[in-house]
Amino acid sequence: MKKQLDISSDLSWLSKGNRPAIISGPCSAETEEQVISTATSLAATGKVDVLRAGIWKPRTRPNSFEGVGEEGLKWIKAAGKETGLPVSTEVANAKHTEEALKHGVDILWIGARTTVNPFSVQEIADALNGVDIPVMVKNPLNPDLELWIGALERINQAGIKRLAAIHRGFSSFEKTSYRNVPKWEFPIELKRRFPELPIICDPSHISGNRDLLGMIAQKALDLEMDGLMIESHMSPDSAWSDAKQQVTPATLNRLLSELIVRSKTT
Ligand code: PEP
Ligand code: MN
Hints:
Radius of gyration: 17 Å
Number of helices: 10
Number of strands: 8
CATH architecture: Alpha-Beta Barrel
Bound molecules: phosphoenolpyruvate, manganese (II) ion
CATH class: Alpha Beta
CATH superfamily: Aldolase class I
Distance between the termini: 28 Å
Helix content: 25-40%
Structural class: alpha/beta
Strand content: 5-15%
Largest sheet: 8 strands, parallel, barrel
Number of domains: 1
Strand order of the largest sheet: 1-2-3-4-5-6-7-8
């Protein structure tokens, strides 16, 4: 089967022309105040293009915080209005997708636990049929490039041309320095096959720890990836999910200013 993606060359949904595009915000929306204060501080850096916040959280074990649900969509929209930034959230099924669309979320992403399941991805694709909204697809939990491409194709075949892929690393049984092991050959191969597809790196979920964020972000830029998704929180240690890997907007600002961006080789 010939693999082909029909990608829009208009990337203005992702950035105003700067590279890398920066997507940031909390792992999870917790309260309206938290979402708005984080968004305001991020916007004040002048370096953030898109806000992110998880509303429905796919947790490994039950009885953990599973997200604030639909109510949080109002908070992220309010944060977008306050800052002028587009807002994004994760959707994992048709219901999430319909609610996110109803509230006017600007950009959707599909998480690693959803990309693994073609039925779920197809359900989202069907809910998006005829809707013109940008969608970012994270790699599946397992290192299966074809499964990642298949998810991108399903969304693309629903008519979504503003697409991006997010490399967030892969689950591993082995204990390593990473929470999710990056496989840089995957974004390299995606870029080779689909030169128009923007590729974003998520150093937060790769590292699982804020200490490694700068190094991983720099590696992504050295590989000419187009954007970074980095989780941020006003008080990272007390975050309701992914506390160890989040940084304050001030730390994010410093981290971004230390990155070296070379011009692309092609
Ligand atoms: C997230 O972005 O907070 C998230 C749950 O990510 P992933 O799907 O990469 O685990
Ligand atoms: Mn997270």
